[in-house]
């Protein structure tokens, strides 16, 4: 893709291994709070939280719950579902600990460093994430990928989430990049790919397994497949 000068990466599930990092954190919280006395196995806690968290993010993305309701509700509802009575200060502490610990986890999606090393001499690299500013910065520094990126844009600083165009427009403005010379790589069809299409960026869906081919976007099943796509 000769016309591309700037590559924008999504962060969670695209470079930063959200699932692995979140799982590690939840297991740590399980031990810290001696939940083994109340829950048979940490995998039950992790699985229950994961399902409830996904529902909360969906509601948050549709504007149905606030950031604060998301932060606390996912833990409160996890314990309710598991029939364990916990008071609000326990929930508050756990929600705080989770947000403090999780972004310090360093796990990256397989191939991240290799592909960033490959791309960094050929393109200007950037991040566009639907996360909050603080944890985003911590995730990037704890996983050691900060040096690869010229700009980082969190949806929180724009006030709306991907796929809303202002997030992409703000990010390109910071990068001094034009849409037609910009590619967007992400794992989320709606947030990353539709968003990129609507702002005339070149979209690349990163998702393991096959997807129905669509002329509107590229698809890679692993990060290293980006090498042939972005060879210069
Ligand atoms: Mg993502």
Write the layout of secondary structure elements.
Blueprint: E1 6-9, H1 18-32, H2 42-61, H3 67-81, H4 88-101, H5 112-120, E2 124-129, H6 133-142, E3 151-154, H7 155-158, H8 165-175, E4 182-186, H9 189-198, E5 202-206, E6 218-220, H10 226-229
Parallel strand pairs: 1-2, 1-4, 2-3, 4-5, 5-6
The structure holds magnesium ion (MG).
Q: Short summary of the structure?
A:
With 232 residues, the chain is an alpha/beta fold. It has ten helices and six strands, in the order E-H-H-H-H-H-E-H-E-H-H-E-H-E-E-H.
Question: What can you see in these coordinates?
Answer:
The protein has helices at 18-32, 42-61, 67-81, 88-101, 112-120, 133-142, 155-158, 165-175, 189-198, 226-229; strands at residues 6-9, 124-129, 151-154, 182-186, 202-206, 218-220. The model has no long low-confidence stretch (mean pLDDT 96). By secondary structure, it is α/β, with parallel strands linked by helices. The protein has 10 helices and 6 strands. A 6-stranded parallel sheet has the order 3-2-1-4-5-6, with helices on both faces. It folds into 2 domains: 6-17 and 108-229, Rossmann fold (3-Layer(aba) Sandwich); 18-104, Putative phosphatase, domain 2 (DNA polymerase, domain 1, Orthogonal Bundle), CATH 1.10.150.240. Bound molecules: magnesium ion. The site of magnesium ion has 7 residues, from loops.
Helix content: 40-55%
H/E element order: EHHHHHEHEHHEHEEH
What ligand species are in this complex?
Answer: magnesium ion
Annotated CATH topology of the largest domain: Rossmann fold
Spatial extent as radius of gyration? 19 Å
Globally, the shape reads elongated
CATH class of the largest domain: Alpha Beta
Number of domains: 2
Give me the side-by-side strand order of the main sheet: 3-2-1-4-5-6
Mean pLDDT: 96
At CATH's second level, what is the architecture of the largest domain? 3-Layer(aba) Sandwich
Instruction: Please identify the structural class as seen in this structure.
Output: alpha/beta
